[in-house]
Each structure stands twice: as C-alpha cells, then as structure tokens.
Specification:
Blueprint lengths: L8 H9 L5 H19 L2 E4 L1 H12 L11 E5 L26 H8 L3 E6 L33 H8 L5 E5 L6 H7 L2 E4 L20 E5 L2 H11 L17 H7 L6 E5 L9 H16 L3 E5 L7 H16 L20 H12 L2 H13 L6 H22 L4 E5 L15 H5 L6 H6 L2 E9 L6 E8 L4 H19 L2 H4 L5
Parallel strand pairs: 2-3, 2-4, 7-8, 7-9
Antiparallel strand pairs: 1-3, 4-6, 5-6, 5-10, 9-11, 10-11
Helix pairs in contact: 2-3, 7-8, 8-16, 10-12, 10-13
Length: 493
Amino acid sequence: MADLTRLTATELAATIATKDASAVEVAQAHLDRIAAVDERVHAFLHVDAEGALAQAKRVDAGEISGPLAGVPLALKDLITMRGIPTTCGSRILEGWRPPYDATVVTRLRDAGVVILGKTNMDEFAMGSSTEHSAFGPTHNPWDLDRIPGGSGGGSAAAVAAFEAPIAIGTDTGGSIRQPGAVTGTVGVKPTYGGVSRYGLVALASSLDQAGPCARTVEDAALLHAVIGGHDPLDSTSIDAPVPDVVAAARRKDIKGLKVGVVRELQGEGYQAGVEQRFREAVALLEQLGAEVHEVSCPHFEYALPAYYLILPSECSSNLARFDSIRYGLRVGDDGERSAEEVMALTREAGFGAEAKRRIMLGTYALSSGYYDAYYGSAQKVRTLITRDFEAAFAKVDVLVSPTTPTTAFRIGERIDDPMAMYLADLCTIPSNLAGNASMSLPVGLAPEDGLPVGLQVMAPPMADDRLYLLGGALEEALLGSWGAPILEGAPAL
C-alpha cells in the first residue's frame, strides 16, 4: 500500500470511500507520522489519538459520510474542543478544557473529519513566526532552523510535514497565509463572517477569521465548503450561501479573468527571489488567458500602522477576561492577597512578552485623551483601505501580490526586533482590515535559498470562489514547472 501520509485529502477520501484503506488505517498512519517527526517539528501541542481513532471507527461503520469523511486534520489551538486542552499557546490557560465545541469543530465532526489534535501557535495569535508560543517554537519542515510563519505555524508545519493532509488556522493579519507561503502550502482567509467565529478565542474580534490550510487548492476548497456558512451563534456571521468554491477549484480555466497586480505591494524591501517567482507566476497567468493590469491602492502603505493600533486595542479588551478568577492559571492565591493582587500576579506570570506589549499598546491607544488620535484615526485609515479595494475591484476581478516579502527567516533572527517581525505581514494585513477573501498558494522556490515562495490572491467579500478559480488554474500550470516539491516531501524531513 502507498504511504497514506503522502496522499492529498481528496485522494485519501477516495481511498476510504472505495475501502482500499480504512479510516482507522489512515488515522493511525498519520498518528505514527506525528510520533516519528514531531519531536523535530513541534507542530502539535496536544495529540488526541483516542478521539481521532474513535471518529475514524464511526466513518468505517458507515455512521458518517461526505467528501472529507475519514480525512485527518490538525486544529489550531485557539479553537475550542469539548474536554480537550485549549491553551492558545499561553501559560495563562494552563489546564483549561473547554465545556463546548466551536461551530467549526461541530461542522468538521458532522462531516466525518478526523481531528488529530491541537497545533502550536504564537500566544493568542500574536506573532509572525510561532516563536512567541509559551511552549517553544515550531520548526519549518523545509529547514528546521527556520520559522514556519505565524501565528498559525503549527497548522502549516503539520501539513508541510505530512502529519496531516489538511488543517484549520485563523487569520487576523495573515496568520494562515503567511505560514502557507513560507511552508509551501495553500492557506485561505475566507471573507470575514464567511466562517463562524463561535468558539474561536478572540484576539481582535473585527479581524479574526478561521480558514483552511492544505497541500492543494482543491483540498482547501473541500475544507472551506465544510466549515463555511451562516451560524446564528455568531453575530458577525453572514447569512448567505457559501460560493461554490469546490467547482471553482476544479474549473481550471481563467481565460478573460481580470487580474490586478498591486503596485504598492512589491519593490523595495522584497527579497529578489520572491519578486522573481511572483513575476513568473503573473506571466504564467497571462499565458493561461488572464488579463493582467497594474492597479494602485495608495492607502495600503498605511495598513501596517493602522493595524497595529486596531489589533492591540481590541486585544487589550478581549484579553481582559483572563483574570485568574474564572478559569486557567491562578498565581499567588494564598488566602491573604486581594483579588486585584492575584489578578496582577497571574497576568504577569501567564502572559508572554509579546502579549504584554500589545495589551499595553492597546490600553494606551484606547485611553482617555488618546482614543480619537490613535484608535479613531486608525479606523479612518481602515475605511480608506476598504475604498481602495472597492475601486480596484471595480476594474479587475482579483488582485495579486507576493504573500510575504521574504522567505522563511531563521529562528531567533527577528525575535528581539518587533518591527522587523511585523513587516512579515505587510502584504496580508489589508485584506483583514477590509474583510475581503484572500489566499496564498505556492509558486516555486526562491533561487537564493531554495525555500518556498507564496503568491497572494485577493477577491471581493463573498467572492471566495474567485480565489479557488485562479488558484486551481495556476496550481495545475505550476505543477509541471516546479515539480510541486511539497507533494513530494519537504527536504528537512
């Protein structure tokens, strides 16, 4: 039998459906792979072997069916699962086992997806490298000395290391797409409100969005179709049908599609090999029949500073709930200290440096006398960025750019330089501010270092199918030109 961990989700589903392999065999193969390589990768924080095998047995018994029935999945550790540890990469949630499932988890289980466990991440999704996890960094399967992106580096690394064929991440400023780019995988941020946020531990409520990670565009589309759709438990959920992303991924025809290259998301500060692979991919789009135009989005240059006022402000509010009283870590409760003292000691011990930095920034930005100057002004810039998107989409169907300015940097290289770290999300942040749909897909290896490069596709809100249309066609064309090494195996493992 072929190595089951090397098959795509689509291939695995077919293998299980035809009974060439059982769901239990598929799950066990991936659990064995985790046992063999995860000591080096550190993609997982918790492996739920018992739960995974129990779900696989239900699929084999015919209790559940569907396009992804029996397919294993890795889940980012800020999405709640009843009775399973959820840490958000932070000590402050030590010992917390949620009493409920996130809507995403419910939909995965109802579809027969086998959840292998919870993946590592930057603490409360604050970071671009997965180095800010309280439980140690995750390593990039292409080069174990390099970062796998962040904050969802664990999910992307699990997919790239063949520990799982698909995964769920969350994207607040690029936390699905940037890890996808640097690990040679596909990562999608759906339209804000297109996938339920119920059960996602909030970082920035107006920005957070769950989405798929996969090794192929079609696999990502199948996962998107499972988790997407309206949820009455989420007040920000869009009450509209999910676009037919699976049909779009399979179409492979982009003749006449109008593609806009964003002028402001290239040039100075971008690695030469990243720009080279991006230009080659754009040229290939033209060969496939797309109409390529340069588009200007002049306010994108202000996206990064606006984002780093809006996100910390919402973060300081959301993380106030971790107060040592209701759940999680409690420090200094000796019966003599006041609740305020216990809270201060717990937050000091439980939060890492990056979380504290952003909480303080946000508290300052929201404070009396500074709210309008900082948070209010940032929201005005957000409106201008949204208008840039609207003007661009009046001329073209999709926009493209590099996903991130460089390939994966070395672990420790930027850990003491927050501004250099933040620049990893330069291209991805505008889509979060505007709420539109975006995807990163691999377009080759940078000549300088042999590491993966990602191309970002951006589409209007609720036009997620356009991501998969372009992504599916470009992926098929690229498979012959760069050999799709992610399907063959990342070299470090």
